[in-house]
Design goal:
Elements (H helix, E strand, L loop, with lengths): L14 H34 L6 H17 L9 H18 L3 H8 L10 H9 L3 H49 L5 H24 L7 H20 L6
Length: about 240
Amino acid sequence: MESQDPRNRVVQRGFWSNLLTGFAQCLKWLVVSLLFSIIVEWIGMTFWWEAQGIDHSQQMLANELSFLGTDVQHSLLTDNPTTYADSLSKWFHVLLFEYTRILELIEWLSPEPAPGEKGIRLVLRNLYWPMSEYVAAAVQITQVFAVRLAILTLASPAFGLFALVALVDGLVRRDLRRWGGGRESSFVYHYAKKAAFPLIISAWVIYLALPVSIHPSWVILPFSIGFAFTVSVTASTFKKYL
């Protein structure tokens, strides 16, 4: 009997492996969104809103905090969304700028050089000073990112609510198709199933990386509806007989 090539063997991943893989994927997309938003802000400071400079990122932060304070006053996840967002922003600041000693480096390079000063600090300060506004903008954008991440986290029950309603609707339409002798399409089922998760990822990545401030409802609501539609189609086209 011919033995199977071990290179062609399908490896079954367990629950914890899938969980860690999913967590790593989410972390990857968060890092990509943060880096992309910082790069876009730098490009904008150079070409699009050169006159505003660092004021653009400061205004974005003020707008995001305004959205949070006026429109996200209640949530199923926390009693005080503003405090939650502030804590998340501070956590990001400590993790990215204090633990890495970047803040200490900036404070060391910021003072004016003393008369006749020489050495590595003078050299590094001459390199840092022309890009100091870009560094400050990156810090501001990181805070914007943290506030937006808090808003998305607080709004995540909306995806669950839309999905629950869509699931019920899809199961009802599946039963009608089952008892009415409707046609079954595995093609539609598989493509609708594959589209559900990318819609959630797209909502997070787009909102986190936007270079301008818009109300979160303009991003969350359309993607919630799209996600609900895929859930409804997936449930309604699920095979009639198990």
